[in-house]
Design goal:
Largest sheet: 8 strands, mixed
Number of helices: 15
Number of domains: 2
Structural class: alpha/beta
Distance between the termini: 15 Å
Shape: globular
Amino acid sequence: MKRYLNDLVRDDLARKMVFLTGPRQVGKTTLSQQLIAEQGGQYLNYDVAADQSLIVNQRWSPRAPLLVLDEIHKMPNWKPWLKGVYDGKPAAQRLLVTGSARLETFRQGGESLAGRFLGLRLHPLSVREWCAQTSATPEQALTHLLERGGFPEPCLAESVEQAERWRRQYFDGLVRNDVLEFSRIQEVNAIKLFAHMLRSRVGSPLSLASIARDLSISPVTLKKYLDILEALYIVFVVRPWHDNIARSVLQSPKVYFFDTGLVEGDDGVRFENLVAASLLKHVHWRHDAQGKEADLHYIRTKDGAEVDFALSEKNQLTHLVECKLTDDKPHRALRRFAAQHPHAKATQVVRDLRHSFTVDALEIQRADEFLLNLLA
């Protein structure tokens, strides 16, 4: 399966070293192997003992057109080491660094790699990408992704049962093994319990203080746990929109999962998570591929008026998005914020809708059409 970033990764490798990150099992290794099959090269994974020795001692082939180094952020002092590798490699050799944790998490201290790399984030399959990969209609793609989630293996599985078996092993193994990169072994069970609790809190403003009381730990510790789950691409945080960035950080965030299949809730909650993941993929494409200052938020006022999502560029709102399963009556808060931000496109995205239509400045749009028209 050729992913939406294949061509971009290939083009960027001709310019600089490329950092390709994203959730575990989202398709980074497959993409790397496809590039090696096209142009030749060598793949080494720091998690594999035999490969680790080759990596540490730099015993890969200097004639490999493409060198792929996976999970090297787990190596002590990896940044100065990688800087030396990049600066000393043959001019014709291209270097792709992949990992299942956010490499920006490891920027503190040590040598800077600024100016030497381009960063890309690989996301699960979306409606747009699934339609491009198969003969599915947008409606069929949306139904499939709501049932299976967007990770390639469960998406391509022969049955729902196989997809669920994969997800159970994936989630348990991810929390148990990868969390140890960031935390002590004594905290793994607490982080796993916290992650399970988040599965039933998708789409609601998150009170870390309340959950901390339930778990009998401090809110500061719980905030660290949330940062770990973010760094591992298990969840992503959507913060409220505010012109003052500091104030938005202090207000309650919402949490969503990269894998919609992990969400515990009704059809509306799962649908909202899928839209959130699709919008984040769109925003990251704008940021990584097009160099835009794009971000994803939600809007909530003190009087309780709320819009599910808001997109911004250069600290200016560009889109307002409200999710509904069946309700095609214009959402009151969406109308309110559309009037306050006339330059932002306001869309009510409805899962079950016969035809898209417009009411004043609001577009009431079929969900499959809306998701198909996102950039990635």
